[in-house]
Amino acid sequence: MLEANLKNCLVRLAAVTIDLALWTFLAIFTLAPGVAALAALLVFGYLENFDALFVSIVSIEYMYLTVGMLLLIFLILYYPCRLESSNLQGTLGKVVLGLKCSNTTGERNGFSRVAWRLILQAIIVCMLLGILALAMSPQFRDLVTAVTGTASQGQARTFQWTDSIVLLILFAPYSMALLTKNNQTLMDLMVQRTVTSDKTRTKSNLNSLFRDFLHILFPDDTPVLRKMHKITGRVVRAFVAVWIFSLALSVSAVLALPLAMAQADQVFKSEEQGNLGQQQQQQRKTLFKHLDLAYGVLASNSQATSVFRQQCLSKAIILNPHQYTYWYWRAQDDLAQNRYTDALADASEAIKAYGKYNTPSHNALVFAPVRLKVVAQENEEGALYSLRAQIEQKLGDKRAAFADLTKAISAANRAEDYKTWLELQEFIKKENESEAKVRLAKMTAIANEAYKNLLKNPARFQEKKDLYNRMIDLNNAGVAALVQNKFDAAIKIFQSAIKVGAKLQNNGTGAGDSFEIAFKKWQSALGLDSRYDLAWRNLSIAYNGKAKEISDPEKALTYFHRALYYDSLNEPAQVNTAAAIEKLGLDPNSFAAHIKLAESAAAKDDLESAVVEYTLALKLKNDSDVEKKLALIQSKMKESGTSK
């Protein structure tokens, strides 16, 4: 009996597989165009510039998918009930494999009995899945460990036994068919149903199976049913029309994507050549609004070369500079290519974009939050800070690396990341402490030795000290002016402080002047030269404050340029510079726009502004010609004594 039951079970399993394949094909055929069209709409912003049309199409697609899912669920439930209670006495899979469903007396089951069996099966399966979830939970495993009292080495074997028992319970309702007389599962026993082999089915039955199958599913032998068929026919025609529309939309999205990328490439070339028209600028902001995702996907290809990845990431950044992922990937590439300065700049941009634009958008479109990201980083914020810490460590800035690792650790949400970053932080901390001790000892020795030489010429030493004190006094006065928002006065005071500081930095009579060498060593060992750098940073703050008081964006931009020239890390000045460029009708994320501003400044002999704009352009794209122009201007400023 066991062998016969096993054979019957395998045949029943094959029949279920045929039915599942049928429904899978039907579901894919029905829903795939709608899913593809909706994905194209949501991900690439297809037709998003036509707001009313876009929202209407998305609503239609949502409705189509909802109705399609409900119809599929209805048919999946109606299909076995209708067919098993018909003359066929079985679903398509069972009929094809020669199986017949009946009650224990050999008569066919009624519709309600088959439906009741499906309900019981759903209830039992849900209960079994609940048991499985409970058995796999950590709480249950802790309970088993406490009850059995097993040590850690015996827990694995205990859990193997419990998992095996749970699996036996899970399959028990179905494995009962191997042991029962009529090959019945638990659900079959509950409704008195049997599934037996029917050898009376002939070839003619199989040939007419499809016709009988449709006739049984959709009978039309009564006036009521005929009327229902007319209504159903209209629904089906509408459904087919939306299906064709969805298919056309998804195909058009696939065809439109390479065309849009080709147009975008033309815009990029025009931008590089500096002749980007107003219409093309509008295109880049609207028609290619979400095309960055396509370039991001291309860049994420593991088979792509480094050059190709850089090109794709640069285009993605131009289209969407607010997506931190692109900056993060480019920083990784720069780090791999040992371009540490570029990598640090990109990593900083990634952190800035993550902090500023990672909040949910207040878009009027309700589906905006589901727009896909290019990457699903496990610890996004932590990964950004840890990457920048790696770069800073390569550059030798261990203090900054330690600070970034602290931020990464606080953002960690996985134990392995937390452990890795904590170990790296401890390693840097020990290195810093060790280096600090060595550095302090060296600096103390240098300062003492230099001080002995300085005392040999007390008059010159006193003069240097007076200059230093004068610089400190001026710097303090400038800070006081800043507090009172007297930016013009502050600028003049800080410029005077910098001039005094420049005298302090001069080498006196010559490069080999032993006094000047001793003073430099003494000043550096005590950290006094940092006050000179502070004057530059304060001057940058003063220029930024002055610029904010000016309503003319072109004139204000000149002052913002000064602020960035004297301190390129002045973050408020960076933001204000971008805003001023936008007020002039230019794109602050455009390479060509920065080149245009730089050349205009150079023509006016505004060399500081030219340096800043060329530097900003190089952050967006490496260009050897721009690097040469920048070096030429810096050399010119150095010769004239106007460089910082």
Number of helices: 27
What is the beta-strand fraction? under 5%
Q: What strand order characterises the main sheet?
A: 1-2
Reported for the largest beta sheet, the result is:
2 strands, antiparallel
User: How many beta strands in the DSSP annotation?
Assistant: 2
- Low-pLDDT regions: 202-207, 359-377
Large-scale geometry: elongated
Average pLDDT: 76
Structural class, judged by helices and strands? mainly alpha
- How helical, in percent, are the residues? over 70%
Q: Give the termini distance in whole angstroms.
A: 97 Å
Q: What string gives the helices and strands in order?
A: HHHEHHHHEHHHHHHHHHHHHHHHHHHHH
What Rg is obtained from the alpha carbons, in whole angstroms?
38 Å
Quick synopsis:
The chain is mostly helical. Helices cover 76% and strands 2% of the residues.
Describe this structure in words.
The chain has 644 residues and is mainly α. Among the domains are: 2-222, no CATH class; 456-640, no CATH class. It contains 27 helices and 2 strands. It has helices at residues 2-44, 51-84, 92-96, 111-136, 138-148, 152-175, 186-191, 203-207, 209-217, 223-272, 278-285, 292-299, 306-319, 324-336, 340-357, 380-394, 398-411, 415-454, 458-483, 487-505, 514-526, 530-548, 553-566, 571-583, 591-603, 607-620, 624-640; strands at residues 99-103, 193-197. A two-stranded antiparallel sheet has the order 1-2. The radius of gyration is 38 Å and the shape is elongated. It starts with a helix and ends with a helix. The model is unreliable at 202-207 and 359-377 (pLDDT under 50).
